[in-house]
Amino acid sequence: MMETFTSLNRLNCTQPKQEKPAVDAVIELDMMFYDHIRPQLDRLTRNPSDETIEKILAYSRAK
């Protein structure tokens, strides 16, 4: 009779567990980035320059 066994890979057993899943870490980084650029985005939506408004109107009339 043949005897078989499965060896444990020590690298797999001794790795520390991650505190957060990778998806949560990416979402957190995205939110940090968005929070960082939010003031600039708010300024753009509230105070477009006259030049920007003219370009939009010219483009809409061209179609």
From TrEMBL:
Q: Which domain of life is it from?
A: Bacteria
Name this protein carries in UniProt? Uncharacterized protein
